[in-house]
């Protein structure tokens, strides 16, 4: 009788050791001469590409010009990184500004500018990226709500990709556990909690969030087929889904964090995301009809003014929103 191999009793972390294969590879990245590409950065890059492709497909299917998401995404990505770093610095104030730390000196690890040394936060990325997307939508004439709904499934999937970077970096793990899927952390890791045995296992919060976010992407794609999920409502569901999961994962993490009223600052941020999602659903319930176009009425009027075609016909909006019938995609710009 064949015996099945025993299931692993834990989840190993990627090794910290290096090996040479054409170029130097470390757990934190590739080294090509003076240049280093961090694996965490690659995970984020893969997530950005996936989110862009998904958002482009969904938005162009609504009638927008193909790849207009790139015009929107450029300021969104730039401000997302700025917001992510700013949020991290503000919520880890002592790391950068106390005990004589040279926060202004780019040659030291604790400088606020050195994003390559680690330290970005997703909630800051959402705030900065949201502002950048709003600016991009103003430039392109795309409705912010239409873009947000198109982005939602890809955004939460991108966050799932990004969490693999935490696994490679052996960071942001949870409390000690004896569960068979406990995560191994190298005891030489500077973030390894003091006083614990070297073979202590920890909750793999990166994996919990990967699973939760992937399920969220599937749920959002399914919900996105419903007409009732327009006007920013699908993005509101994203905020509720992601925030609800983050409340749980954040509550069991052991990395240092500021605490307010007994809760980590990111738990409060996650609660804020859930509340904001609920508010958006309530406020946007005033829109009873469908978004007739992913473009704003002002943008369509401007296009119509310079066109001799009769592709654009004004219609009234019973809910009071400025609507114009959907143009042929080839005429949108």
Automatic annotation (TrEMBL):
Pfam families: LGT. One of its GO terms (molecular function) is transferase activity. Residues 309-333 are annotated as: Disordered. Its EC number is 2.5.1.145. Pathway: Protein modification; lipoprotein biosynthesis (diacylglyceryl transfer). The chain crosses the membrane at residues 35-55, 67-95, 115-137, 144-162, 206-224, 231-249, 261-283. Keywords: Cell membrane, Membrane, Transferase, Transmembrane, Transmembrane helix. It is an enzyme of class 2 (transferase). It is a multi-pass membrane protein. NCBIfam families: lgt. Catalyzes the transfer of the diacylglyceryl group from phosphatidylglycerol to the sulfhydryl group of the N-terminal cysteine of a prolipoprotein, the first step in the formation of mature lipoproteins. Belongs to the Lgt family. This is Phosphatidylglycerol--prolipoprotein diacylglyceryl transferase. It comes from Microbacterium nanhaiense. The lineage of its organism: Bacteria, Bacillati, Actinomycetota, Actinomycetes, Micrococcales. The gene is lgt.
